[in-house]
Amino acid sequence: MKKDFWNSRYDRPEYAYGEKPNDFWAQWLMDKKPAKVLLPAEGEGRNAVYAAQKGWQVWAFDQSEAAQRKAHMLANQAGVALQEFKVAEAQTYRPPITPQVIGLFYVHLPPDFRADFHASCVQWLAPGGYLVLEAFNPNQLNMASGGPKVPAMLMKAAELKEEFKGLIIEEAQELTVELDEGPYHQGNAAVVRVVARKPD
Q1: What is the domain count for the chain?
Q2: What angle do CA 192, 118, 134 make, to 5 degrees?
Q3: Sign (positive/negative) of CA torsion 94, 40, 154, 141?
């Protein structure tokens, strides 16, 4: 999707995907010691703000200026600060830190670029660090709960295992969940979840 699309979606008072974190992300963070986390294509900041509330140092980016503005508003409301929320494109972004965790939540990129970006994430991650992902899988085409309608932008567990080569895959599964994330993620959804660790 182009920047204009996302600026239009985010340039409204309500939060397109809600103000609460993704459930999978919140569950994963529950027993983890806070460290440095990077959240690419973070949208309006719900996952970033939640991590900051849990004591994490958070770096994030999104291509949308409206998303950046909304993320800072949400952080202010929550009484937390983000280390950085940059307006940047995934193709050219380079993190200023070596994150212990990278969280990818519904980051649906064109397939000709996605594998390269995922390879970059593997390189950026600190030794012993974790990559956590939730996205729509191809079965989402039959559902009305959100996501791109371009089959090649949806993700399969087997493909992600290949794209995250170099990481130890601890979880990679496709399943159906109930989404309640703002007006654009509502109802039954076909997702893929991955948790992978970089060797020490």
Answers
A1: 1
A2: 20
A3: negative
pLDDT in tens, 44-83: 999 999 999 999 999 999 999 999 999 999 999 999 999 9
Is the CB of residue 133 less than 8 Å from the CB of residue 104?
A: yes
Helix (H) or strand (E) holding 74: helix 65-78
Domain encompassing residue 79: 3-197
Burial class (CB in 10 A: 0-12, 13-18, 19+), 109: buried
CATH code, 186: 3.40.50.150
Token couple for 185: 């993620």
Cα angle 157, 173, 16; round to 5 = 85
Quick one: which of 131, 137, 120, 119 has its CA closest to 169? 131
Tokens at 3, concatenated:
């920047």
Model-level pTM? 0.97
List the one residue out of 197, 60, 45, 81 whose CA is nearest residue 133: 197
